[in-house]
């Protein structure tokens, strides 16, 4: 469950994306975990995901399969700050789902690896369920890296990717103890 925004201000905030007011009408709480203040920046998680997918799709279309897609999912489009804690992790998990659904071809292996690398850095290792999701991400990343090596010309960029992937994996296992 997403954490509901604490102590809503007097004039009821609404979702800046669908413009509906809080949980009453939609059943979903408004969330916000960035630097937005007052009544700005509140949104439904599903609206945030839809919006991020829209921008992500556009960015990959414009910039190609090496675009750092996580930028569309992990920071607030209004104040540009990274989402915090649970919201950050929820958005990153939705990034993986998005990439798996829409970018499953070999040419997008890079995106598939990066979405997991960026997510595993934010796994709450104290949470058993999240930790096992993290372990699944590690397995998947390692197999994707093997495929990348097999199918692609191995470039400087790929070496940097590999280093960042292994460093994320090491951090994950260091944190899990
Ligand atoms: Zn909404
Ligand atoms: Zn914000």
Automatic annotation (TrEMBL):
SMART domains named in the record: RINGv
Report if keyword Zinc-finger is assigned: yes
Pfam families, alphabetized:
RINGv
**Record key words, sorted:** Metal-binding, Zinc, Zinc-finger
Record-annotated RING-CH-type domain positions: 7-86
Reading the lineage from the top rank, the first entry is: Eukaryota
Spell out the molecular function terms from Gene Ontology: zinc ion binding
Answer whether the UniProt record assigns the keyword Ribonucleoprotein to this protein.
no
Kindly provide the name given to this protein in its UniProt entry.
Answer: RING-CH-type domain-containing protein
* Provenance organism: Skeletonema marinoi
Where is the organism placed in the taxonomic lineage, from the top? Eukaryota, Sar, Stramenopiles, Ochrophyta, Bacillariophyta
């Amino acid at each position: 469950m997403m954490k509901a925004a604490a102590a809503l201000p007097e004039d009821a905030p609404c979702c800046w994306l669908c413009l509906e007011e809080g949980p009453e009408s939609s059943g979903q709480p408004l969330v916000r975990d960035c630097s937005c203040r007052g009544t700005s920046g509140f949104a439904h998680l599903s609206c945030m995901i839809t919006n991020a997918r829209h921008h992500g799709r556009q960015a990959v279309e414009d910039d190609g399969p090496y675009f750092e897609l996580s930028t569309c999912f992990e920071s607030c489009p209004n104040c540009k700050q990274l989402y915090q804690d649970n919201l950050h992790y929820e958005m990153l998990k939705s990034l993986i789902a998005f990439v798996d659904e829409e970018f499953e071809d070999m040419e997008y292996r890079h995106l598939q690896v990066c979405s997991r690398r960026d997510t595993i850095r934010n796994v709450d290792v104290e949470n058993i369920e999240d930790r096992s999701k993290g372990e699944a991400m590690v397995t998947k990343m390692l197999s994707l890296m093997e495929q990348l090596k097999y199918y692609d010309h191995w470039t400087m960029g790929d070496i940097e990717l590999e280093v960042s992937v292994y460093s994320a994996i090491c951090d994950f296992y260091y944190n899990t103890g």
